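ok new one. same drill as before - structure tokens go in, u give me an amino acid for every spot. 495 of them this time. try not to just spam alanines like last time pls lmao
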């Protein structure tokens, strides 16, 4: 807050922290605090759980939109820019930054804070962060604007902040190097308050007095290894409404303690939660069902509800509910089957997809395998689409359709909408050899031969540009597939 309020000083603040150290929580709290002070101009919270929040091309247009909502003069300037070039939101990053942010901010002399959280979660193939590279070229033209950026210390992020234009004007805070005693005290306070609240909520149980004991809090604090995500996951595990909190607490206390910082600590907790969740499962086919459900949840490009997940996978909602019954400490499972299932923290999907970390082969999620399964499932759904799925009269424009979102929900549904939008995203991460590749090609060929219904859905969803991206993804994938699999002229047909 001192940095945000200082008129002088460095324009960029990098909150640098490892996974689970609380970067996004701090970014959210900081955004709320500067908003109360009237200093927040705009924010973008990157997330690899949502395709539109992990694409770099969406950051600057989103920030510009928020600034236009808040500052009338900025809005007037942006309207002129869009009238001059309606495609400005789809131009290069450097053009977006210059035309949508730098020119109107500097022209209107606006002072504000801009927040970009979890930059490392954006898709970026450049050796130095593409966003940081272009930001370095223009940030000095915005002396009244401060950029608060969070991200893991990944190579491209570190390299980006070391660029000669950016390094001198960047203040760096290493979250994982905060005084460990201070971190432990914070976690101890958090655990005490949350577990005490659980005891009050479960008045139906005869818990020991006091509960929890000071010694038990100390052991849990040590187990947390200065990782807030560890502490919060333990609390969610203990507070499960279907179990006795003291038994779950004792289960955590009885396991071998770890004081290793980083992946080791959280891995042991995740392994323990999975072991407890599926202790009564023995059959290989049951674990295959579990992997299918978890794989879809972990790899989906947008969170899915139980209902939509059931449609895509072709399984019952009860199987999904059963699979997730004991995983509420790591996955948010709404009681309403139409609401989205979400993972609490990205460290859990990371764990499941890494065979060196998730050492139980029965639960390890091989990304390539389950992207393939999702691609096949999506293509099967798309193949069943009929012409004019919403039964619209000829030549109707989207803006003339009353209650279009409700119509799409009723006539198409979230599962088919997801399949139409993301089949190609799953495809390009699928194997390019074996029987599954041939199966994917046959389904994709059939879909292309009957492509209008799919394109209609994309148009109604206002994602028509994704048709081109999907075709490019299919072509890139086909280039890697053995020629013996390819039907005649499929590439020529696509072109």
């Amino acid at each position: 807050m001192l940095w945000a309020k200082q008129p002088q000083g460095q324009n960029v603040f990098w909150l640098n922290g490892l996974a689970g150290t609380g970067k996004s929580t701090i970014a959210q709290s900081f955004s709320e605090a500067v908003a109360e002070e009237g200093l927040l101009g705009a924010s973008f919270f990157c997330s690899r759980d949502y395709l539109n929040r992990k694409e770099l091309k969406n950051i600057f247009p989103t920030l510009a939109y928020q600034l236009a909502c808040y500052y009338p003069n900025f809005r007037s300037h942006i309207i002129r820019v869009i009238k001059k070039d309606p495609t400005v939101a789809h131009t290069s990053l450097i053009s977006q930054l210059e035309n949508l942010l730098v020119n109107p901010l500097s022209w209107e002399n606006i002072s504000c804070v801009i927040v970009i959280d979890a930059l490392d979660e954006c898709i970026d193939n450049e050796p130095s962060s593409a966003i940081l590279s272009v930001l370095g070229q223009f940030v000095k033209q915005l002396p009244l604007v401060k950029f608060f950026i969070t991200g893991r210390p990944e190579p491209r992020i570190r390299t980006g902040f070391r660029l000669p234009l950016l390094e001198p004007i960047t203040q760096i805070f290493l979250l994982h190097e905060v005084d460990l005693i201070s971190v432990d005290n914070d976690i101890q306070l958090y655990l005490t308050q949350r577990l005490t609240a659980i005891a009050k909520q479960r008045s139906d149980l005869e818990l020991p007095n006091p509960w929890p004991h000071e010694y038990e809090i100390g052991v849990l604090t040590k187990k947390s290894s200065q990782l807030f995500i560890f502490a919060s996951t333990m609390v969610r595990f203990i507070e499960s409404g279907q179990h006795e909190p003291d038994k779950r607490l004792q289960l955590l206390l009885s396991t071998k303690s770890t004081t290793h910082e980083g992946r080791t600590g959280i891995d042991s907790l995740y392994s323990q939660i999975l072991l407890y969740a599926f202790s009564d499962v023995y059959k290989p086919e049951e674990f295959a069902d579990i992997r299918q459900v978890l794989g879809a949840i972990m790899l989906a490009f947008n969170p899915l509800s139980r209902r939509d997940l059931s449609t895509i996978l072709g399984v019952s909602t009860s199987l999904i509910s059963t699979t997730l019954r004991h995983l509420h400490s790591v996955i948010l499972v709404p009681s309403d089957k139409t609401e989205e299932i979400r993972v609490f923290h990205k460290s859990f999907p990371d764990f499941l997809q890494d065979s060196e970390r998730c050492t139980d082969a029965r639960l390890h999620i091989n990304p390539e395998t389950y992207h393939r399964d999702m691609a096949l499932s999506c293509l099967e759904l798309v193949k069943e689409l009929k012409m004019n799925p919403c039964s619209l009269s000829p030549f109707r424009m989207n803006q003339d359709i009353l209650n279009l979102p409700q119509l799409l929900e009723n006539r198409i549904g979230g599962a088919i909408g997801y399949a139409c939008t993301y089949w190609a995203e799953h495809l390009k991460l699928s194997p390019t050899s074996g029987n599954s590749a041939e199966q994917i090609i046959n389904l994709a060929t059939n879909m292309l031969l009957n492509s209008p219904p799919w394109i209609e859905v994309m148009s109604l969803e206002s994602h028509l540009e994704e048709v081109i991206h999907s075709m490019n993804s299919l072509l890139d994938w086909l280039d890697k597939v053995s020629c013996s699999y390819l039907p005649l002229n499929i590439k020529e047909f696509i072109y």
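The chain has a mean pLDDT of 88. and btw The chain has 23 helices and seven strands.
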